[in-house]
Structure formats: structure tokens, C-alpha cells
Design goal:
Helix 6 crosses helix 8 and helix 7 crosses helix 8. It contains nine helices and four strands. It folds into three domains: 40 residues; 46 residues; 138 residues, Carbamoyl Phosphate Synthetase, Chain A, domain 4. The strands form two sheets. The chain has a two-stranded antiparallel ribbon with strand order 1-2. A two-stranded antiparallel sheet has the order 3-4. It is 41% helix and 13% strand.
Length: 226
């Protein structure tokens, strides 16, 4: 749906070359709103190129001087032409780096305004692994979905779910540890159940590791957990 909408917007505006479209999506009604259209190669384009192996900037440059997609050879694969879209057998996560650890009095609510000062990118065979890689790459001292919520009551943890801020994902993980139903978390946060399920998988693996006897672990078990 959003892909088709993006192509329609780009065709209507007559854009040739690099472009990205940002949306806000209402998952309950599937209504979407266009936040902005960037008819240029941007920082996000560099991340997308790394994630997919598709040389966006190089292709955009050649389009600018008159080449068409079926005339531009993919310099990464050396086989396909630029009119072929890349296919992936891995998951890529782009995770924002928030500055609120340095600007402690700043408003940490997240909306459509740009507040991130950077981002990290990670890839792995599964979403769960890619997400945890991204968290470790933020250089904030966090290595898992922990945020010091262990001292809070169940009521306080549930209240944290209502706040759309940089701590929300960690509040969701803590809520799952407390046994708060996934359906309730989805209803409060309005986050798609697919993502809540993936966070629940991470929490379940945490519990498995904590309860397991390390001496009984095999090489295969360690590789699976990793």
C-alpha cells in the first residue's frame, strides 16, 4: 500500500533519481498521512544502500545525466541492472540515537519532529537478533531491553506504556516480563501486534537463559541463543 502510494507520488511530481517519502500510518484504519517527500539522496539513502546492496547515489547520478534504469549495471552484483529491485534474506533494523542522555531536561516525547541526532543500522537473520544488535550499537551502555524498570510496580510499568517517548520499547519489554497481556499492550500503544510478538520472543529467550543450567549447554544451543 505505502509502496504503491510512494510510486504514485513520485510519478505525479515527475521526480527522477533518488527520493524518499515518509508517512504516518494509522494501523487500526490503515489510513496514512504523508509527512514529507524528499526528492534527493539523503542520509537515509546511504543506509538503504548498505542494507540492500543497491547503489542508490550512483544510480541517481547516472539518471541525472540521461541514463535509464535498464542501462545502468548494478556495480555491487555486477550482474543485474538497476531496474531489478533487490531481494533480501535477512532483516535490517534502523534504530535512532536519541540525545536525551545528554539533554536530560529536554522533552523526550516522540512525534513527527526530528529529535534523533543519529542512528545505527544492524542486520541479522531475524528481527529479534537485528534489534538487539542495534541496541548494543547505540553506545549507551545497554546490551538488552533493560532500562532499570525492575523497581517499579506493575501499575507504574503499565502507565509507562502510555508515554510515546524514547523509553517506550523498554517499558513494553518490562510489561511483557510482568505478564501483562500482549493484547492490552497493543491496545495501549497502538503498535502492530507483530512487533509486540517479536519483543515477547526476546523476553521469553531471556527467561530461558536465566533458568538454564549453563553447564548443560551445547554448542548448538549457544549458537541458537546468540
Amino acid at each position: 500500500m505505502l509502496r504503491s502510494a510512494s510510486l504514485n507520488i513520485i510519478n505525479a511530481l515527475g521526480i527522477e533519481g533518488g527520493c524518499n517519502v515518509q508517512y504516518a500510518l494509522d494501523t487500526s484504519s490503515l489510513r496514512y498521512y504523508v509527512i514529507e517527500v524528499n526528492p534527493r539522496v539523503s542520509r537515509s539513502s546511504a543506509l538503504a544502500s548498505k542494507a540492500t546492496g543497491y547503489p542508490i547515489a550512483k544510480v541517481a547520478t547516472r539518471i541525472a545525466i540521461g541514463y535509464t534504469l535498464d542501462e545502468i549495471l548494478n556495480g555491487v552484483t555486477g550482474k543485474n541492472y538497476a531496474c531489478f529491485e533487490p531481494t533480501l534474506d535477512y532483516v535490517v533494523v534502523k534504530f535512532p540515537r536519541w540525545p536525551f542522555d545528554k539533554f536530560t531536561e529536554a522533552d523526550n516525547r516522540i512525534g513527527t519532529r526530528m529529535k534523533a541526532t543519529g542512528e545505527v543500522m544492524s542486520n541479522a537473520p531475524t528481527f529479534e537478533a537485528a534489534l538487539l544488535k542495534a541496541v548494543r550499537s547505540l553506545e549507551t551502555g545497554q546490551f538488552a531491553l533493560e532500562y532499570g524498570y525492575g523497581r517499579l510496580s506493575d501499575y507504574d510499568v503499565e502507565e509507562r506504556l502510555y508515554a510515546a517517548n524514547n523509553e517506550r520499547m523498554f517499558a513494553i519489554a518490562e510489561a511483557l516480563r510482568r505478564g501483562i497481556p500482549q493484547a492490552l499492550i497493543c491496545n495501549i500503544t497502538k503498535i502492530d501486534p507483530w512487533f509486540i510478538t517479536k519483543l515477547a520472543n526476546i523476553v521469553a529467550e531471556e527467561k530461558h537463559i536465566q533458568s538454564a543450567h549453563f553447564d548443560a549447554w551445547t554448542k548448538e544451543t549457544m549458537l541458537k541463543t546468540k
